[in-house]
Amino acid sequence: MEKLWAGRAHGALDAAADSFNSSISVDSRMYKEDIRGSIAHAAMLAKCGIISPDEGSRLIEGLGGILADLESGALAIDPSAEDIHSFVESELTARLGDVGKKLHTARSRNDQVAVDTRLYLRGEAERTVLLLKELIRAIASTAGRTQDAIMPGYTHLQRAQPVTFAHYILAYGMMFARDIGRIEDAAKRMNVSPLGCCALAGTTHPIDRAMTASELGFDGYCLNSLDGVSDRDFCVELASALALVMTHLSRLSEELVLFSSWEFGFVTITDAYTTGSSIMPQKKNADMCELIRGKAGRVCGDLITLLTMLKGLPLAYNKDMQEDKEAVFDAFDTVKACLGLAAPIISTLEVNRDKMLAAAKGGYINATDLADYLAKKGVPFRTAYKLTGRLVADCAERGAALEDLALEEFRAYSPVFEADLYDAISLEKCVERRTSAGGASPANIAAQLDYLRGITG
After folding, report:
1. Domain Argininosuccinate lyase C-terminal: where (predicted)?
2. Which residues are catalytic?
């Protein structure tokens, strides 16, 4: 296939260099966007009188035929083509002759690839947001059925205060809700058209950039042609948002691995999302969660690839920027695959209430509530804190829980203690009384569920 840039060079490109230069294996997935952008460009050329109406119609019809043939399988993308733009234009020229050669008037591959990438990533962003909403729905559903499942909340991986599994899992729902916001914000900033920037300086032809921008669903067009062809901020922003998605998925996966172990036994991951050992028949491994955790590093690496690629580039387009697509495409592919598994893992999760409650009864996680009880009786909180600390230390030596002590034993520490202390340190009451906004109480859980359901629609 003849190169689009043939003419200046006299010698043939080395075969290894030709293969090294080619991006068709990566950018061929953008064939719909490339053809869509070309159809809008052809319509604009005809409207502006740069080509005749008949030529515009023939170009649009020819491009539509190529798309239909690619979709049906009647036409295959030539892997020897330099890129998807070269393939489409060469195929169009083969079908239409000289008319096909007019398509590239007032356009460069620099603005062409930029518009293709933005169109493609816009769709990827929309698909990823839908998957995030599915995961949030799964989280909300699981939270709805576990509002009474009391478990220890942790700090420093030490038992800290009582919460419910619903409160715990909803924390991840909030993370993923923010992820949706970040992706949508990045997609909004991305949604301006570089088409018409040409190679770097615009064109002498009387084009209508507003027309092509509107036709392609953009909110406007890039105001500086140099910026339009050299900007890849949108790739970095999206990759950054995706890296955070994977960070959140990784944290969740880590806890599911821990919580499904024999040592915790808080949850059971269904057999559909676990594997076994080739030598140890008793094993049930949370391999899907482990893989999600591992793939987080891959997406973080994609972000670093993009930042490193851009950091030393002079204006405008440089061939280095061909590397943008492989990184950002991989980030989206990886995130979508992980989200597609995370949602059913969460929705089918079995919560072992008895194990959670048994763990909550150990570790003196109602100690803060005991200190708060004393503070409400007029004892300065710092004094109440130290007194409760002494009680915990003494109980730990005896192997007793706070609620195991008789009232007389409590009163030996302070005469402020009364019989109502047992209600104050009941695990159920500890959770119910955390009514401050965002806390673990049932009313707050209901508010959190309403918020997430509002996001998912």
Report:
1. 364-432
2. 156, 277
